[in-house]
Design a protein that fits this description.
alpha+beta
Length: about 80
């Protein structure tokens, strides 16, 4: 995935969107831009449909910040 900050890479994935958003928020608090993919979208079936369909909810960071993000994740005990 590419965006304004260049290439974005996955640093973690979750079955629940809430968990992915918590990690993305924590990374953001540490100054590391983070995105949740796929973004929650309003659909006929409601939010969280991707997770219900078995698709992982991924946390993405700019490629050049991957090592920092992995250090934060390691400190949090999430591997």
């Amino acid at each position: 995935m590419t965006g304004p900050a260049g290439r974005w890479v996955e640093v973690a994935s979750f079955a629940r969107e809430e968990e992915a958003r918590l990690l993305a928020g924590r990374l953001g608090a540490d100054g590391i831009p983070a995105r949740v993919f796929p973004e929650a979208e309003a659909s006929y079936y409601g939010p969280g449909t991707s997770a219900l369909l078995g698709q992982p909810i991924r946390v993405l960071v700019p490629e050049h910040r991957t090592a920092e993000a992995r250090q934060v994740i390691e400190r949090l005990g999430r591997t």
